[in-house]
């Protein structure tokens, strides 16, 4: 069996089919399931699981091989009846929405959907080796046993306090391993816990049985790997129950991403193990499991890949499958969108092996072998190319200026090529003159629609780039409105591919997409397979909207920080200005403060009346020199006399 899908979303599921390793199933970041043929190195099938981001694939597992009827077959003879070939057919995909999708490679379509078992995202799926049963673990801490014949849950039970992140069924189909807060071994007949193990401090992503021996003989071993853990731990199921700690550990360079092993059936047979780490390296192990080993075991051989440039760059390995020959390993490397598959001969006698590959040459070879639906016609010099126009369209006739008439005479009545027409048409909105006639503007918009049709049919990047450079929304709306209905879906697909590129280009493509949705929504709603055709677009929009929420939070926090820094910087000069203003205010109001102080003196209980009156008389003599200020002391004196009389009466 191939390794079951990992529960961490960063590790994209990538699994080989069991036994023959004929297919490689990859769930890429765009949400599509791609099944590659390892023999022909070509894309076998492609499927979009869902049109919403919450239903993206989180884990993938191949079902056991079974007899598959592929198309009409001749009636077999009695001698040939025993020779029935079993092939890998069914793929189980767990989704973040809590459903399990069963895909059939023989049909090339969805076989069935298992729904209603989980209330949280599915983290792991694993098949029963014999019966048509499937087990799934979810964030809701439950394990569900599915019956594929009825498509309903056969049983459901709570596995742990935490989310179930990994599952594995024993080769005999009697035991089930589950990993949550701890690792538990379940008896599938009674659904009761058979053993408990300590587990890891982080989420367990890999569980695999290493031996096929019965648990009663102390010979049943399994291994586990976790996120952010550079060790693969091996556990022994003992009769006495003293199996809390791991007995063997394998050292890695990074957390395990893909694990493939050949199980051991006896103590004299070694377990062969191939582990692809998150850093893109492959580690090969070979060990006899016959008891505890205190020292961590290093890999017998480590494999890295690099390109053939002057400054070589590493090529990440995605998955590996062991063959019957210890030297032969099936490798998948490169990009998830288009992996390169190769049967490599590795010299396991060396501790470190570096394989150099020209990945561009391998990709070009694999692309040439694929069947292309678009055929480019052979154009000779004598052939005449007719430009496709819009049905029922007649462009308004505009009188050409004098310069163009002279140029036509000089050209000798030669027709202009498509490139010359593109050069003549000014697609920049900023260069459009205000006084241009309306007929010329409509002609230009019609040319946009014609060129857009031609670019979509021929997939000419130069023509499409010229048309998509239009920034004026009025011209975009008119161009989209004049498009015939069969060109709407190709236009949306072209916009989808361009939206995945440069963010500046995406801003321009959004305007075109908005115009398409405004004018052709009724046509799009009438398509039966719209969800499949627009699946990638939905995925991309949802992912960017989800990221936009986080970016707005970050923007708000940065805005608060910048405003606080600006307030602190502007606080010092403001305080200096206030300080100078106080000084100026005190100088201007000095006389008024003294006068108000004199008025308040009689009202206080003071024993120094004579001294205060003397000081007031001295001030009055000094102020007599100023004729403008003579009236103020008199008024103050009168007020003082009145206060004195009041105090004597009291």
From TrEMBL:
Q: Which UniProt keywords apply?
A: Nucleus, WD repeat
**WD repeat boundaries on the chain:** 115-156
InterPro entries, alphabetized:
SSU_processome_Utp12, U3_snoRNA-assoc_WDR, WD40/YVTN_repeat-like_dom_sf, WD40_repeat_dom_sf, WD40_rpt
GO biological process, any: maturation of SSU-rRNA from tricistronic rRNA transcript (SSU-rRNA, 5.8S rRNA, LSU-rRNA)
Query: Which residues does the annotated region (Disordered) include?
Result: 587-650
Q: Does the keyword rRNA processing apply?
A: no
Localization, UniProt: Nucleus
All copies of the Small-subunit processome Utp12 domain together span 460-562
Where does the UniProt entry say this protein principally localizes?
nucleus
Q: Name one GO cellular component term.
A: nucleolus
Q: Where is the composition biased (Basic and acidic residues)?
A: 628-637
Q: Which domain of life is it from?
A: Eukaryota
* Regions of compositional bias (Acidic residues) in chain numbering: 587-627, 638-650
Key word Oxidoreductase present in the record? no
Can you tell me which family this protein belongs to? Belongs to the UTP5 family.
Stated name of the protein: Small-subunit processome Utp12 domain-containing protein
